[in-house]
Fold this sequence. Notes:
By secondary structure, the protein is of the alpha+beta class. The protein is built from five helices and seven strands. The protein has a domain at 4-116: Gcn5-related N-acetyltransferase (GNAT) (Aminopeptidase), CATH 3.40.630. Strands 1-2-3-4-5-7-6 form a seven-stranded mixed sheet, sandwiched between helices. The longest helix has 15 residues, at 99-113.
Amino acid sequence: MAHMIRPATDSDGFQLIRLIANVFYEYPGCVMDVDGEIPELRQIHSEFAGKGGEFWVAERERRIIGCIGYTPLPKRARTPRGIELKKLYVERCERGRGIAGQLTRLVEDAAGAHDASFIELWSDTRFLPAHRFYERRGYLKGEETRELFDQSDTVEYYFKKQLRV
C-alpha cells in the first residue's frame, strides 16, 4: 500500500514519540526523554505553527512512518532570510523508498514560499546515513558543531543549503 503525506496534528504525538524513539534506539547512547528534552512532540502542530513553521507526517495504513518540519529563522539585520529544517525521521524499514526526499522537498518548497535564501539544519554526529542523505541533496556540512548537554551527550554538525544568493 502507498504512503501519504499530510500536515501533522497535535494528536500525532504518541506515534511521533514511537517513531523517533525507534530511530534513537538504532544509535548507541541516544536516549529518548520526551518530557525533559523534546516535549513539543506531544503537541507538534501547535508548537510549529506557533513559531511560524509547519510539520508533516508520512503514514502508511494510519501508521506514521516519517516526519519533518521547519521553522523560520529570526531575521537579523543585513542577513538573508532562512529556515531551519527539523526532525527528519523515517522508520528503518521504510528507508530507501523516497520518503525522506519527499518530506525534504516540502521544506525546500516552504523555503521558497518564505522567500528564504537558505535552509540550515543540525544533525547528531552519530547519524551518518542522514549526513550522506543531506549531502546528496546539496546541504554542505560546516565546520561548526554544537553540544546539547542532554542525556544523550549529543554533539551536532551544522549543514546549510544555499537556495539563492
